[in-house]
Design a protein that fits this description.
- The protein is an alpha/beta fold.
- The protein has two domains: about 150 residues, 3-Layer(aba) Sandwich (Rossmann fold); about 90 residues, DNA polymerase, domain 1, CATH 1.10.150.
- The protein is built from ten helices and seven strands.
- It has a seven-stranded mixed sheet with strand order 3-2-1-4-5-7-6, with helices on both faces.
- Strand 4, helix 10 and strand 5 form a beta-alpha-beta unit.
- Helix 2 crosses helix 5, helix 4 crosses helix 5 and helix 5 packs parallel to helix 7.
- The chain is elongated.
- It binds magnesium ion.
Length: about 260
């Protein structure tokens, strides 16, 4: 009753997935991006944006929560691209990601300016408090620690809220080093943050692996610094992706590291 062709495809997929999840020889330190790699940023951000919407009665400005979400995400994504390229400061990003959507929603200038600081604080507090991890994240870190690997976090997020995410999600005790762009003033993919992380670990680039969901920042940066890299892409159908002219394995689920 089995369709032979279908079975063959399944076996090929399983083989690709297994190959994609092999730890490169000699790796001692495994560095993870935090947002959307370990921490469920997408779900947490939605909760935080909904909290802001209700607390500040944003239905005055937007025709429903979804319009607010869409407007915020559109501006925020564009601002993060600029921030990751070091074209705007963190202050500018944190100001404009509320200022611009509210201006679009017709909020008058005076009210927009007076709300800005509170929105930044309330949003980041709610974002860090959810404690939501991606499926398999805690089990993966627990396993890697038990096997003697050293674990680092390498993130472009903001210092206060990133530490709060590690605490609220109950993984801070599994992490040996936290390196944030905030701490040294450069963002991934700038290789200086990878070199800084390397000095913190005391191992070589070849003994280091970066796991992250962003090809442009996590993966390209790691490769330029000479590290091993794997792309976490749960929705991808590919076993590998090309970044910087190199074939990079795709992790579809963090649970696959339980074989390491
Ligand atoms: Mg990320």
């Amino acid at each position: 009753m089995c369709d032979m062709k279908y079975n063959t495809v399944l076996e090929a997929d399983a083989g690709d997935a297994a190959r994609a999840c092999i730890l490169p020889d000699g790796v001692k330190w495994i560095w993870f991006d935090l947002d959307d790699t370990l921490y469920d940023f997408a779900a947490s951000s939605l909760i935080a944006l909904r909290h802001v919407y209700e607390k500040y009665n944003f239905k005055r400005f937007f025709a429903g929560e979804n319009v607010w979400f869409e407007t915020y995400h559109r501006h925020n994504a564009a601002l993060w691209q600029l921030y990751n390229r070091a074209e705007i400061t963190q202050e500018k990003l944190r100001f404009d990601r509320f200022y611009l959507p509210l201006r679009e929603g017709g909020v008058e200038e005076k009210e927009n300016l007076s709300l800005n600081h509170d929105l930044d604080v309330v949003y980041l507090e709610a974002l860090g408090a959810t404690g939501l991890l991606l499926d398999g994240a805690k089990e993966a870190l627990t396993h890697l620690k038990s096997r003697g690997y050293m674990i680092g976090i390498l993130s472009n997020g903001f210092s206060g809220v990133q530490h709060e995410k590690l605490r609220s999600s109950g993984i801070v005790h599994l992490v040996d080093r936290i390196v944030l762009s905030d701490d040294i003033g450069v963002n991934k993919p700038d290789r200086r943050i990878f070199d800084h992380a390397l000095r913190q670990s005391g191992v070589s680039a070849g003994e280091s692996l970066m796991v992250g969901d962003n090809p442009d920042t996590d993966i390209a940066g790691a490769l330029r610094a000479g590290w091993n890299a794997m792309l976490y892409a749960p929705h991808s159908h590919d076993a590998s992706v090309m970044v910087e002219g190199m074939e990079i394995p795709v992790l579809h689920h963090l649970g696959c590291v339980l074989n390491w």
